[in-house]
Design a protein that fits this description.
It is built from 16 helices and 13 strands. It is of the alpha/beta class. Helix 2 packs across helix 3. It is globular, with a radius of gyration of 22 Å.
């Protein structure tokens, strides 16, 4: 049976690091197993805020990768202040009262000039390039992956001018994502974002989202069919790790300003004061980009001396650190808008065989996953005493060398199982 060709339009691709690259890197890895030939279209000269060259090794030689030049305003903004530009492009937005004048200007420009985002100038050059390629190679099915949501505009315009089946994949929501309100939007810009979002939702043949809450939100905006395909975990070739000697509680991934879990810092400070054994054994391990606000809050609670801030590491090393740590921390912004966010690292956490302590808004979608798989405990920002009791319990099991978890149902979240679900959706609807 002849392989079906699938054109995938994505911005994040190796050597890009961070969570944005993982979803389609893994789908592309397994799609050929389901008789689909992936063809990946990416920018030739992107400005990635995080780079992980190790991920290049995960791209199969048989994968067809198309590249086309992109002009990004962030390339120019970097001349003004590379540090501030990188922070904002990677999603680290300082609290409003702590923003410098330049950061305020960059945020205003990001929200009001770069609509829907700073990759909007790639739309028109991509149309000409892709129309020719699609016609010459008899492609009838495309996927766009956002954010950046400019890529959905490429799909929209291709669909309007050609006979195509278009799947719009939303790794994150558009106008309801947590940082959207921080972009200092004018009424015109806010309206424009919502108009473009509506055009994309109505224009696609099928919308793919990563959580049931995002599906429910989009169902209020469109009649287009919506399917939920979560992120997941892959089988990683990582040797079994020896657990840390310390009682390490590790947060892995970007630690944004709005995710500051004051409730956790308060509990840890109290335990250090109240329990000398805990103070002796405890270590807070931070892996990934961490905002200054988070570090300041850690210092305010006198935890700096207990903190091991490793910074950004390769994906392979991050997996190793997960499996060495005693406890894994998963923190989400305390806001109704973030109920739909299921951090990609959750699924890697789940197969690490280490207990998860998760903190987030009430009725979070990821709370249900953690509970149903028996991989950890979820707390809202109001459950301080329950959080404290759980940390004490985990610490006591650690002292007895009995701290472990017994997961169930993880196979539903394997990357290969999820790619099978995706392939069935594509074959059935195109």
């Amino acid at each position: 049976m002849k392989q079906k060709k699938l054109l995938i339009i994505t911005y994040y691709w190796p050597p890009a690091g961070g969570p944005g690259v993982q979803r389609w890197l893994k789908f592309v890895k397994y799609l050929p197993d389901f008789n689909i030939q992936p063809i990946v279209y990416i920018p030739e000269n992107p400005t990635y805020p995080i780079v992980d060259t190790d991920l290049v090794k995960e791209v199969s030689d048989s994968t067809i990768v198309l590249k086309n030049k992109i002009f990004e305003p962030y390339q120019l903004a970097g001349f003004l202040s590379k540090k501030e530009t990188q922070k904002i492009s990677s999603g680290i937005i300082p609290a409003a009262k702590k923003q410098s004048f330049l950061e305020k200007v960059l945020l205003w420009v990001r929200g009001n000039v770069f609509i829907p985002d700073a990759r909007f100038l790639w739309v028109n050059p991509s149309l000409k390039y892709l129309k020719n390629y699609i016609q010459e190679n008899n492609i009838d099915t495309i996927v766009t992956s956002g954010p950046p949501h400019s890529l959905h505009l490429i799909g929209l315009k291709l669909k309007e001018s050609m006979e195509l089946t278009w799947f719009a994949d939303f790794r994150d929501p558009w106008t309801t994502i947590g940082y959207h309100k921080a972009l200092k939007l004018s009424s015109y810009a806010d309206k424009k974002h919502k108009q473009l979002e509506k055009l994309v939702l109505d224009g696609a043949n099928t919308i793919i989202v990563t959580s049931k809450t995002t599906k429910a939100e989009f169902e209020l905006l469109t009649d287009t069919p919506i399917e939920v395909i979560t992120n997941g975990y892959d089988i990683e070739n990582v040797d079994r790790q020896v657990l840390d000697d310390k009682f390490t509680m590790a947060h892995i991934g970007s630690f944004l300003s709005d995710r500051n879990p004051t409730i956790l810092w308060e509990v840890l400070q109290e335990l250090i004061i109240e329990n000398t054994s805990f103070a002796t054994h405890f270590q807070l391990k931070l892996i990934g980009k961490v905002s200054q606000e988070i570090l300041d809050s850690i210092a305010q609670h006198e935890l700096t001396s207990y903190c091991n801030n490793l910074g950004y590491v390769s994906h392979t090393e991050a997996i190793q650190q997960q499996r060495k740590s005693q406890v894994l921390l998963l923190i989400e912004i305390d806001s109704p808008e973030t109920k739909s966010i299921i951090p990609g690292k959750l699924f890697e956490y789940m197969v690490s065989e280490r207990p998860i302590i998760a903190i987030g808004p009430k009725d979070s979608d990821f709370a249900e996953i953690i509970t149903s798989t028996n991989t950890g405990v979820f707390f809202t920002y109001n459950e301080k005493e329950s959080l404290k009791k759980t940390i004490i319990s985990y610490f006591e099991f650690y002292l007895e060398k009995k701290l472990q978890v017994y997961p169930i149902g993880l196979q539903n979240y394997s990357r290969k199982s999820l790619t099978k679900q995706l392939s069935q959706l594509i074959m059935h609807n195109s």
